[in-house]
Amino acid sequence: MGKTVALGIAGVTISAAILALGFAAGSRADLSAAPQQAVAAEPAMSARGDIEAVVRDYLLANPEILGDMQVALEEKERELQRVAQVETIASSSDAIFDAEHDGVIGNPEGSVTIVEFFDYNCGFCRRAMDDMDAMVEANPDLRFVLKEFPILGPDSQKAHVVSMAFRALAPEKYADFHRELFSGERATEESAIRAALAQGVDEAALREEMKNPAITDAFNQTYELASRLSITGTPSYVVGEEVVFGALGRAVLQEKVEQVRATN
Question: Does an H or E element contain 143, and which?
């Protein structure tokens, strides 16, 4: 990937030089009569070759410039992504932090919120659950919003449908269900139903709620938000005005929480 980007940058550099040459040559040609233009074509082509040779020799002698250009390009892209994320968080705050279909663990009235995009078949999400529990215990003012984001295949999709149906029927037991489903080897529709029934919900009512089209609507809203936030994997978090990618651990999330507290 790095080599491809570097070659692309080199191509852009050479193209820019050639474009500048072409403009200059064209400007000179416009000042000449038609017969003179034909005569000037050969020197212009020669000058083009000279420019290409100079640029090539310079890049070969100073290859580090390609790395510098690549770093600058990546930094610019990250900044553009960050700005887009901040704008999305500001314009879609309710959908991100207060969607009625999301589960909440911790203090429902907490002054600091972490939103986690997760998939029940994500191994990193499974390990990150311990971080969530530790943070909720250590931060009485923390509200942890769980945004169901099934992206790891049909089993995940079906398990999350059960989860959404369960939360609608027994929101007060959602935290226990959530932990139970993560404790198994793989989340499927069957394992999710078993976890739901273990929490005492009626199976007929659960299966009926699983047909609710609002579940699909909720998933679509989450997918759309994830796209706008540049979230493509799990776990990913929204804390304050920042998107945090990956299971970076409790210390990193706690630092983000402290930053939010400092601005409140």
Answer: strand 142-148
198 SS3 class: helix
Conformation bin of residue 260: beta by default, left when phi > 0, alpha when psi is -120 to 50 = alpha
Strand partners, 113: 143
H or E stretch at 56: helix 34-61
* Both structure tokens of 40: 């000037």
CB 121 within 8 A of CB 187: yes
Whether the pLDDT of residue 152 is over 90: the answer is: yes
- 97 vs 102: CA distance, rounded Å: 9
Interhelix angle 174-183/123-138, nearest 10 degrees = 140
Report the C-alpha gap between 215 and 161 in whole angstroms: 7
Note the pLDDT tens digit of each residue in 132-141: 999 999 999 9
Burial label, 263 (beta-carbon count in 10 A; 0-12, 13-18, 19+): exposed
Closest CA to 120 of 147, 102, 144: 147
* Domain ranges within the chain, ordered by starting residue: 2-91, 94-263
Of the ranges 29-38, 84-93, 129-138, 193-202, which one carries the lowest mean pLDDT score?
29-38
Report residue 169 as tokens.
Answer: 């029927």
Q: Which CATH class is domain 94-263?
A: alpha beta
End-to-end CA gap in the chain:
41
- If you ran DSSP here, which 8-state letter would residue 233 be given? S
Helix or strand (DSSP H, E) at 116: strand 112-118
